[in-house]
Protein backbone atom coordinates (compact mmCIF):
# COMPACT_ATOMS: atom_id res chain seq x y z
CA UNK A 1 0.00 0.00 0.00
CA UNK A 2 1.22 3.42 -0.90
CA UNK A 3 0.92 6.35 1.39
CA UNK A 4 -0.96 9.25 -0.03
CA UNK A 5 1.20 12.25 -0.81
CA UNK A 6 -1.80 14.56 -0.67
CA UNK A 7 -2.38 13.87 3.01
CA UNK A 8 -1.77 17.17 4.74
CA UNK A 9 -2.68 18.80 7.99
CA UNK A 10 -6.39 19.46 8.39
CA UNK A 11 -7.23 23.13 7.93
CA UNK A 12 -9.36 25.06 10.36
CA UNK A 13 -12.69 26.29 9.11
CA UNK A 14 -12.00 29.83 10.30
CA UNK A 15 -8.86 31.92 10.39
CA UNK A 16 -7.14 33.50 13.36
CA UNK A 17 -8.97 36.79 12.77
CA UNK A 18 -12.34 35.01 12.84
CA UNK A 19 -11.61 33.29 16.14
CA UNK A 20 -10.41 36.55 17.66
CA UNK A 21 -13.66 38.28 16.71
CA UNK A 22 -15.66 35.32 18.03
CA UNK A 23 -13.92 35.57 21.38
CA UNK A 24 -14.52 39.34 21.53
CA UNK A 25 -18.19 38.77 20.69
CA UNK A 26 -18.57 36.17 23.43
CA UNK A 27 -16.98 38.51 25.98
CA UNK A 28 -19.33 41.36 24.99
CA UNK A 29 -22.36 39.06 25.26
CA UNK A 30 -21.20 37.79 28.66
CA UNK A 31 -20.72 41.37 29.94
CA UNK A 32 -24.23 42.21 28.75
CA UNK A 33 -25.75 39.29 30.64
CA UNK A 34 -23.71 40.09 33.76
CA UNK A 35 -24.99 43.68 33.68
CA UNK A 36 -28.55 42.38 33.32
CA UNK A 37 -28.32 40.23 36.46
CA UNK A 38 -29.57 41.23 39.88
CA UNK A 39 -32.01 43.91 40.91
CA UNK A 40 -34.35 41.60 42.73
CA UNK A 41 -35.74 42.24 46.17
CA UNK A 42 -34.98 40.05 49.15
CA UNK A 43 -38.55 40.48 50.40
CA UNK A 44 -41.13 39.46 47.75
CA UNK A 45 -43.67 41.93 49.20
CA UNK A 46 -41.40 44.94 48.58
CA UNK A 47 -40.96 46.26 45.04
CA UNK A 48 -37.42 47.23 44.09
CA UNK A 49 -37.12 50.08 41.56
CA UNK A 50 -33.55 49.02 40.66
CA UNK A 51 -34.92 46.44 38.25
CA UNK A 52 -35.88 49.29 35.87
CA UNK A 53 -32.63 51.25 35.95
CA UNK A 54 -30.84 52.37 32.77
CA UNK A 55 -28.15 49.70 32.99
CA UNK A 56 -30.58 46.77 32.93
CA UNK A 57 -33.09 48.19 30.46
CA UNK A 58 -30.87 49.92 27.88
CA UNK A 59 -27.16 49.12 28.26
CA UNK A 60 -27.19 45.36 28.86
CA UNK A 61 -29.54 44.38 25.98
CA UNK A 62 -27.63 46.72 23.66
CA UNK A 63 -24.36 45.00 24.57
CA UNK A 64 -25.90 41.58 23.93
CA UNK A 65 -27.12 42.69 20.49
CA UNK A 66 -23.73 44.22 19.65
CA UNK A 67 -22.06 40.97 20.72
CA UNK A 68 -24.37 38.97 18.47
CA UNK A 69 -23.53 41.33 15.60
CA UNK A 70 -19.83 40.76 16.22
CA UNK A 71 -20.43 37.00 16.17
CA UNK A 72 -22.25 37.22 12.84
CA UNK A 73 -19.42 39.33 11.43
CA UNK A 74 -16.86 36.80 12.68
CA UNK A 75 -18.67 33.93 11.03
CA UNK A 76 -19.26 35.68 7.71
CA UNK A 77 -15.76 37.14 7.31
CA UNK A 78 -13.69 35.11 4.90
CA UNK A 79 -10.33 34.01 6.31
CA UNK A 80 -7.11 34.99 4.52
CA UNK A 81 -5.32 32.10 2.88
Tell me what the structure shows.
This protein is mainly α and 81 residues long. It has a domain at 16-40 and 47-76. The chain has two helices and no strands. The radius of gyration is 22 Å and the shape is elongated. The two termini are 33 Å apart.
Mean pLDDT: 87
Question: Can you write the helix and strand succession as a string?
Answer: HH
- Structural class by secondary-structure content: mainly alpha
Number of helices: 2
Total number of beta strands: 0
| Distance separating the two termini | 33 Å
Beta-strand residue percentage: under 5%
Short account of what is shown:
By secondary structure, the protein is mainly alpha-helical. 54% of the residues lie in helices and 0% in strands. It has helices at 16-36, 54-76.
